[in-house]
Specification:
- The complex is a heterodimer of chains A (295) and B (312).
- Chain A is of the alpha/beta class.
- Chain A has one domain (38-289): Glycoside hydrolase/deacetylase (TIM Barrel, Alpha-Beta Barrel), CATH 3.20.20.370.
- Chain A contains 11 helices and 10 strands.
- A 5-stranded mixed beta sheet of chain A has the order 1-7-8-6-5.
- Chain A is globular.
- Chain B has one domain (24-296): TIM Barrel, CATH 3.20.20.
- Helix content of chain B is 38%, strand content 14%.
- Chain B has 12 helices and 9 strands.
- In chain B, strands 1, 2, 3, 8 and 9 form a 5-stranded parallel beta sheet that branches. In chain B, strands 4-5-7-6 form a 4-stranded mixed beta sheet.
- The chains are: A alpha/beta (295), B alpha/beta (312).
- At the A-B interface, helix 2, helix 3, helix 4, helix 5 and helix 8 of A face helix 8 of B.
């Protein structure tokens, strides 16, 4: 016989799960960019090179592939953005300061934002160690470029990030536009600059990304991605939106992809009102113009 | 970069475009690797790898087709040969050599050496060298460890000892690495700056990852994407004056429409007068003279610190 009470409890649980998670998000109403700006495009780099591969204990050749990002790719991206007047944001694991310090100094000097991407590209489960990692990464980045990072791309705990002076995160895709995110208990609100895996180079150009099997590999060519990302830009431009393009120096630093990105940026610039700020600029604008409601 | 054992294999920054020069008036260097291996996975060649119709095609008509195409366009290749394949098709290897292509080594059975002891790996390396030397009349100068279709990653596998053993065995270069898109030094010892020159490889220009990959099935044929990548990377590297490498497998690229795309690509190349197309050994000789390790390699001591709760 059907146990309607049990089924009702299950429906209640589903409703609670959706509503409590949804309640952690605060979307900005009547959002608008500064006068004259139709869209903000954040070019962001996840500069983890071989560090994450090392953490996963991948093979020497995989580490060598990551090393391309630090030796070659990051320099090409710096040149690309600098030459196009794009203020990029480089999300950098603190440990990179001990591996590729010269590139970070160069990126900072070019006017780019150096932000955090976890000390060693992972968030420790133990909260005390997590705090230790945030502090280590923050200190390393500040020491290397002379400016304390205020943004992160990570799943770090909001309360710890706020304690260390962070003002924004850039992860997840709960909305196209920047939105506020709180802890499960409704506290520790931070602005989030969303990015979507569909606008992430590794999804198109990297083999075995995120443990995907060989039969799942569909490595593609630059022109196809140019078309897809142009459509993404065009769609968001039409509604006064936001685009966050996530690039990995070991992936997008390849010559054919730098060339594609150059064409993409040139095409974006044919439109009026395209803003290429740092993530910090976007975060500060949102916090100032559309502060979070009192929680 | 500041050296870090177990993380890095070379120095911190590549040679930028304006520092890269090629012999004579050449603007770009292009190498072609012709891989004779039919190994499907890390175990190296198995009987099953050799007993299916695409393998037979690769050893016969496919190879003949690709060989004729290379000849027609005047392209010089470097042939990567597992010792097992040299024994299976010695005449084909000799014919490729007589065409002017370089014969390079690719393991005993093109197996993953990372699970072997150092002694075992050294013994297999010596045996491979001997077999290829006996066939070819000279020792191979270069060693390859190209990826196989069923490897977990598309990068090739080496052990922590491989490069060191290659130097010991007198090899002049390692044929595939991914830390740069020009030749670069793979350092095996920081203090002594012991290193072996390594040539760039990237799987986006390797036919096997686009042509019915990883095996037959629906939606797995992307010859057009491969062709687009060859063109896009060649054009970008030509503009920069750097290096382009493509990796071909006769069983894959030798098949009708795929072969046509290869020919379309080579037609474009043949219209340019400033593309240098050496064998791997030739580009290595040039690089060692023009960019010797003593001046080109800029190693810096480690600044890495060990902490509790962090990677070491």
């Amino acid at each position: 016989m059907t146990d309607t009470e049990q089924l009702t409890r299950e429906l209640d649980e589903l409703e609670t799960a959706a509503k409590t998670y949804d309640a952690q998000h605060e979307f900005i109403e009547n959002f608008a960019w500064p006068d004259g700006t139709q869209i903000a495009v954040n070019f962001t780099c996840d500069f983890d090179t071989m560090l994450f591969r090392r953490y996963l204990e991948e093979t020497p050749m995989q580490l060598a592939q990551g090393e391309f990002g630090g030796r070659v790719g990051i320099w090409r991206l710096i040149e690309l953005f600098d030459g196009n007047g794009v203020t990029a944001t480089i999300f950098t694991p603190g440990r990179i300061c001990e591996l590729y310090p010269q590139s970070l100094v160069a990126a900072h000097k070019a006017g780019f934002e150096i932000a955090d991407h976890m000390w060693e590209h992972h968030v420790p489960k133990d909260m005390q160690l997590e705090h230790d990692h945030i502090q280590k990464s923050t200190t390393a980045l500040e020491k290397t470029v002379g400016k304390r990072p205020i943004g992160t791309r990570s799943r770090h705990t909001n309360s710890l990030l706020l304690e260390e002076g962070y003002i924004y995160n850039s992860h997840g895709s709960a909305a196209h536009l920047p939105y506020y995110e709180r802890d499960a208990d409704g506290e520790n609100c931070m602005i989030n600059l969303p990015f979507h895996y569909a606008i992430d180079d590794a999804m198109f150009f990297s083999f075995a990304w995120l443990s995907s099997e060989n039969a799942a590999q569909r490595i593609t060519d630059p022109n196809r991605v140019l078309d897809l990302w142009w459509d993404a830009f065009d769609q968001q431009y039409g509604q006064g939106g936001y685009l966050n393009i996530c690039l990995h120096p070991f992936v997008s630093g390849r010559a054919m992809r730098i060339e594609m990105l150059d064409r993409l940026i040139a095409r974006m610039k044919t439109r009026p009102g395209v803003w290429f700020p740092s993530c910090e600029d976007v975060a500060r604008y949102c916090l100032n113009a559309f502060p979070a409601k009192e929680s | 970069m500041p050296w870090k054992d177990g993380y890095t294999i070379s120095d911190e920054i590549t040679l930028f475009d304006d520092a890269v020069r090629w012999p004579d008036v050449n603007r770009v260097c292009m190498t072609v690797m012709l891989d004779l291996s039919l190994a499907s996975g890390p175990q190296g060649l198995t009987a099953a790898d050799l007993r299916h119709s695409p393998a037979t095609f690769g050893m016969n008509e496919g190879l003949a087709q690709v060989r004729a195409t290379l000849k027609r366009f005047g392209i010089t290749a470097t042939v990567t040969v597992p010792a097992a394949m040299a024994r299976i098709m010695p005449d084909a290897v000799k014919t490729l050599r007589d065409d002017g292509h370089e014969i390079a080594a690719q393991g005993l059975k093109h197996e993953d050496v990372s699970i072997l002891s150092r002694d075992e790996e050294a013994a297999r390396l010596a045996m491979t060298t001997e077999i290829l030397e006996e066939l070819n009349g000279q020792r191979p100068e270069g060693w390859f460890s190209l990826p196989r279709p069923n490897d977990p990653f598309a990068v090739g596998t080496v052990s922590p000892n491989t490069h060191d053993l290659l130097i010991d065995a007198g090899y002049r270069y390692m044929g595939n690495g991914l830390s740069d898109d020009i030749p670069h030094y793979w350092v095996t010892n920081f203090e002594s700056e012991r290193a072996i020159l390594t040539l760039p490889y990237f799987y986006h220009f390797d036919d096997q990852f686009f042509l019915m990959f990883p095996k037959k099935g629906t939606g797995l044929e992307h010859a057009d994407t491969l062709f687009a990548n060859w063109n896009a990377e060649f054009d970008a590297q030509y503009k920069r004056g750097r290096y382009f490498n493509m990796t071909l497998h006769p069983y894959a690229v030798g098949w009708c429409n795929r072969l046509k795309l290869l020919e379309d690509f080579l037609t474009r190349i043949s219209e340019l007068s400033d593309v240098w197309n050496p064998t791997a050994g030739e580009v290595v000789s040039y690089w060692l003279r023009a960019y010797p390790k003593e001046s080109a390699l800029k190693l810096e001591p480690s600044i890495w610190k060990d902490y509790a709760g962090s990677l070491s």
